[in-house]
Amino acid sequence: MRLLHTSDWHLGRAFHRVNLLEAQAAFIGHLVATVREREVDAVVVSGDVYDRAVPPLAAVELFDDALHRLAGLGVPTVMISGNHDSARRLGVGAGLIGRAGIHLRTEPSACGTPVILADAHGDVAFYGLPYLEPALVKDEFGVDRAGHEAVLTAAMDRVRADLATRAPGTRSVVLAHAFVTGGKASDSERDITVGGVAAVPAEVFDGVDYVALGHLHGCQTITERVRYSGSPLPYSFSEADHRKSMWLVDLDAGGFAGAERIDCPVPRPLARLRGTLEELLADPDLARHRDAWVEATLTDPVRPADPMARLAERFPHILSLVFDPERAPDDPDVSYARRLAGRDDRQIAEDFVTHVRGAEPDEHERAVLREAFDAVRADEAVREAAR
Q1: Rounded CA gap, 324 and 328, in Å?
Q2: Shared domain check, 173 and 72
Q3: Where is the Calcineurin-like phosphoesterase domain (predicted)?
Q4: Which residues have CB under 8 Å from 97's CB, separation 6+?
C-alpha cells in the first residue's frame, strides 16, 4: 500500500499580510496530481487543516474543494484535527463524509477505533489521534496528571489493545499531532507546552508500522517509522531553509518499506538578509534575492531614514524589517528582544521574579508558575473548544 503523508495545511493563514489562498490552492492541486500520478492508495493528513478554530469562508471553500477532488479520485483519506483546528467544527458530518471515503477523526474517544483499508497483503489499520489537549482529555483517558506524554501513552495503549485483536499480519498506521522529542521547531507553531514540557518521546508510538506526525512545520525524520511531513508552505521566516514536501510511504507485507520526499510548489523563496542598510543595498551577491520574500535585519548603530522604502526598490517583495544594532555585549542599550530570544513564557516569568527579588524562585515557586501558565492554557483551550 502506498500512502501520501501531509499535514499542517493552515488554510486561511497569511504570510506577513500576504494572502496565501492562491498558493494553498496550488498545493491542493499538486496533492491531487501526486495522488493520481504516483498511484497513491491512501492519503493521511495529520492535523492543522485550518489555521484557526473559525476559519474564513474562502478557506472552508478550499477545504471543501479538496475533499471533493480527493473523493472523486476514489482514494481514501484519513484526517485528524490539530491544535489550530476546532475539532467539533472539523468533525461535523464525519459519518456522512466517511461514506465518500474521507475519514475525519476528531474525537479523542475514538483513538482506538481504526479505519480499515486493505491491499493484496491484507488489512492496514489507520488510527487517528487528534490533537489531545491534556487538560481537556485527561478524564477520558483516566490519567492523574494532565501532560502530553501521559495522554498520548494512554491513547496509544488503546491503539495497541485494538491492534492485538486484529488478524495476524495486520499492519498499522497512526496519525498524531504532537511535539515529539528530537523534532526541530520553527517560529510558526503555536506553543503546546504543559507543565513545562511540550515534547513526548518517540517510544510512546512503539508497536506500529508507521507514525504520520503533524504539528512541526519542518519535514523531518525522528526514526525511520516516525516522521513529520511538515507544512506544505512556509509560515515564518524561520522556515527559510526548509524544503517543503510530503512523504510518499510504502508498506509491504512486513510493514514499513520506505519513504520518498515529494517536493511541494512554493510561490516564492524566502531570504533572511542581515547587515547595514548600505551593505544590503550595494552587495552584488544579494541580487539573486530580488524575487524572494525578504526579511532584512539592519545592524546600523543608528536607525537610518526610510529604510523600508529604500530596500523595497531593490527587493520589491520585502515583508519584514528588523533592527538589531551591533553593540558591545555589555552595552545597556542591547535590545530587550535579544535578551528574551529563545526563552518561553515560563522562563521569562522566572527571570522577572529573579530581577524583582534578587534571588531565583525555588522549586515550589517554579511549580506555582507552571501551574498558573497551565491554568491559563487550559482556560484558553476550553474557550476555544466552545467556540
Answers
A1: 12
A2: yes
A3: 1-218
A4: 67, 103, 104
Residues 77-88 have a mean pLDDT of 96
Contacts of residue 175, defined as CB under 8 A and 6 or more positions apart, other chains included, come to 44, 45, 46, 47, 78, 79, 80, 105, 126, 127, 128, 129, 212, 214
**Residues 77/43, Cβ–Cβ less than 8 Å:** yes
C-alpha grid cell for residue 345?
Answer: 513564557
In terms of Cα–Cα distance, which of 72, 74, 114, 79 is closest to 94? 79
CATH of the domain at 213: 3.60.21.10
Alpha helices in 92-201 (DSSP H): 94-98, 134-141, 148-164
DSSP summary character for residue 166: S
Q: What mean pLDDT comes out for the span 251-261?
A: 97
Domains in the chain: how many in total? 2
Closest CA to 41 of 94, 79, 77: 77
Question: 202-229: per-residue pLDDT in tens?
Answer: 999 999 999 999 999 999 999 999 999 9
Domain of 311 in residue numbering reads as: 270-326
The H or E element containing residue 352 is helix 345-357
